[in-house]
Design a protein that fits this description.
Order of helices and strands: HEHHEEHHHHH
Structural class: mainly alpha
Distance between the termini: 29 Å
Radius of gyration: 21 Å
Oligomer: single chain
Protein name: PadR family transcriptional regulator
């Protein structure tokens, strides 16, 4: 769902053609993640059928014509609805988390709380799991890098935990 949010977000400020949307979303996702045409154009068509976006043909001289997509008021409502839809399993998905963090200022207070508390719960589960693996690190004949990987994972989880605890302090204790 996070890619649908990213697609709609590209139209929130100005109309764009499909390649421009694809290029911007790819930039946001990073080099290791891209959006392919087999997802982008059916999604744009679905949004158009829902009334979330409109499409206009732009005639170009000496080049193929292209479609320009614009978001409608309904599309803006759908964008905000998708953004604030956050079932518990999304807290386990880094892409969903990063997407909500990117638009954190647009989230409803309840969604902010779900994002923060859900991710903190996920991190605690992971740290508990890592603690349970400590006994397997003693016999590292078959996995000599296990202690290093364990340390890396633990530090990464603790850093993320610190970040979300700061978010919690900043946004959830203001009530």
């Amino acid at each position: 769902m996070y890619i649908d949010i990213l697609i709609l977000s590209q139209l929130m400020h100005s109309p764009k053609h499909g390649y421009e949307i694809k290029k911007n979303v790819a930039f946001l996702l990073g080099k290791s993640n891209t959006i392919n045409n087999n997802y982008l154009y059916p999604t744009l068509k679905r949004f158009e059928e829902m009334g979330a976006i409109t499409k206009q043909l732009e005639l170009q001289e000496n080049r193929p014509n292209r479609h320009i997509y614009s978001i409608t008021e309904m599309g803006k409502e759908i964008f905000h609805s998708l953004l604030n839809e956050f079932p518990p399993e999304y807290a386990r998905n880094q892409d969903e988390i990063f997407n909500r963090l990117a638009f954190f200022d647009l989230l409803e207070p309840e969604t902010r709380e779900q994002v923060i508390t859900g991710r903190l719960r996920f991190i605690e589960e992971n740290l508990t799991h890592l603690d349970g693996l400590v006994h397997s690190l003693e016999d590292n004949r078959f996995l000599p890098m296990s202690p290093i990987m364990h340390e890396y994972s633990r530090l990464q989880m603790q850093a993320e935990q610190g970040f979300f605890l700061k978010l919690k302090e900043r946004f959830l204790h203001k009530k």
